[in-house]
Automatic annotation (TrEMBL):
PANTHER family: GH11602P, HISTONE ACETYLTRANSFERASE
Region described as Disordered: 1-38
Designated name of the protein: PCAF N-terminal domain-containing protein
Signal peptide extent: none
One Pfam family from the record: PCAF_N
Length: 367
């Protein structure tokens, strides 16, 4: 993944680069940094590594997140090591630190009594649970480091959800009043394709291709966009429905943003599950920051890309803005059809896939 980053995901965060020595789970890292490629890679490495541990060690690790089965009345929900190593950084984490007969610091029952349910479990399932443990540890860090109260609350909810998932050896799904994706129809992805057909469908192939690429770039940016917290939003909101924004922000955290670094949760692309309401709430800020970023980076781009990004893209965004905020735009019609006057090749009406992480010339430019 290294080297193709656009850095869009970092746009709204003030800290950039230079700290390649940090590890997830260490105190210096902040929750918003967890989704950066270098940290995602470390999380993936930890998950790969933990799968190579001896089974005894895996069971010990899971025991910390497993309820005690010694007697019905014991409510202990995780074995606590009575002799935690004084300098954890010095011990070999891949080796067992405890015996099955070691008593729990909390309930005094043995480690064995906390993991008795795991003995006949296939190793694949143990591995899945261990990956959830790593996600739980990262969420634990997020809960403690996050300063925004709304975001902290969501981290805590997800932390408890995954912890319960490990206890019950279940797969986790976010439930409750948030609803399930897709949250709006048509999706932003569909509406932006409609927009390109509606406004540029008549153009010759070469110009059409430019607009089509800009649309893909726009969707890519949106999929990597960090939404403002409801508190930040409130500071410059003009008569917007803040309760609705907060609900979408919570959905975005649970279904899009946290699953980036927490793959026990299913990830959805924002452009596939959100629609006009979300786009309206982020468009102005996003447009301004994107254009600022491109202007700042213009000297690093080859001349032809510079024209596309500095001339065509602002115009593209202005035209899109009208359709986003306008009351009667057809691009949001559920049954949008290509205008009759256009005879389009099939290639123009296939769904727009946002740029993948690699291989797109426009986005690579903005590195
Ligand atoms: Zn117990
Ligand atoms: Zn216990």
């Amino acid at each position: 993944m290294a080297g193709q980053g656009v850095g869009f995901s970092e746009l709204s965060s003030s800290s950039n680069g230079s700290d390649n020595t940090k590890r997830p789970g260490t105190p210096q890292i902040t929750p918003s940094e967890l989704s950066r490629p270098v940290n995602l890679q470390r999380i993936a490495q930890r998950k790969a590594q933990i799968k190579t541990y001896p089974v005894r060690k895996k069971l010990e690790k899971l025991g910390v997140y497993s309820s005690c089965k010694a007697e019905e009345s014991c409510k202990c929900n995780g074995w606590k090591n009575p002799n935690p190593p004084p300098t954890p950084s010095r011990v070999d984490l891949s080796q067992p630190l405890a015996n099955l007969t070691d008593p729990c610091r909390s309930c005094s029952h043995t480690l064995g009594a906390h993991i008795s349910h795991l003995h006949d479990i296939p190793e694949d399932e143990l591995n899945r649970l261990l990956c959830m443990v790593i996600d739980v540890e990262n969420l634990f860090m997020c809960v403690h480091k996050e300063e925004d109260a709304d975001t902290k609350q969501v981290y805590f909810y997800l932390f408890r959800l995954l912890r319960k998932g490990i206890l019950q050896m279940a797969t986790v799904t976010v439930e409750g009043p948030l609803g399930t994706p897709p949250f709006e129809k048509p999706s932003i992805g569909k509406a932006v394709l409609n927009f390109v057909l509606y406004k540029f469908g008549h153009l010759p192939q070469r110009e059409w291709q430019i607009m089509h690429d800009l649309a893909k770039m726009f969707l890519h940016c949106l999929n990597h966009w960090k939404l403002e917290t409801p508190t930040q939003k409130k500071l410059h909101s003009q008569g917007e429905d803040l309760a609705a924004y907060k609900q979408n922000y919570t959905r975005w955290l649970c279904y899009c943003q946290v699953p980036v670094f927490c793959d026990s949760l299913k990830r959805h692309d924002p452009t596939a599950v959100f629609g006009r309401v979300l786009l309206r709430s982020v468009f102005s800020v996003m447009r301004r920051q994107l254009l600022e970023k491109f202007r700042a980076e213009k000297d690093k781009m080859p001349p032809d890309k510079r024209t596309i990004v500095l001339t065509h893209f602002p115009r593209f965004l202005s035209m899109l803005e009208e359709e986003v905020y306008g009351d009667n735009s057809p691009i949001w019609d559920d049954d949008f059809t290509v205008p009759q006057s256009l005879s389009l090749g099939a290639s123009r009406i296939t769904p727009l896939t946002p740029l993948s992480e690699r291989g797109d010339s426009l986005v690579a430019t903005a590195r």
